Structure prediction request, 135 residues.
Amino acid sequence: MTISTLPEEPGTCIYRRVFHGHADQIGEVRQFLRTHLGGHPSAPDVTLVASELTTNAWEHTNTGKPGGTFTVEARQRADNTIRLEVHDDGGPTGFGETNIHKEGGRGLGIVAALTVTWGVNGDAVGRTVWAEFKP
Prediction:
């Protein structure tokens, strides 16, 4: 698995890693982000949001099928903002409705509460869910 630190614009570092589409990789994602962002004030929020987004990728996209993967990318910019991206293998474009009596289904509410902004790009072939954080 590749980890790279590449300059994007002056003062920006990108930390990127490809993970196998297995449930046990969610803990690896958290460790990966703590290793690279551990001193950042938003690191706990970034780690929690990454856990939610990668769980969604594993559970709700083709990432969770045999041979599936997902990529986590964190960009730490010179102004100390962080952009988190989770790239998956695509899949269904619609999901069930949230139900207060059902376990789960609240992760994107957590994402919205902890981020400055977030969104989704892509389609059934591959998707990127992104989120931005300010210290």
Notes: Residues 43-60 form the longest helix (18 residues). Residues 41 and 135 are 6 Å apart (CA to CA). Helices lie at 25-37, 43-60, 107-114.
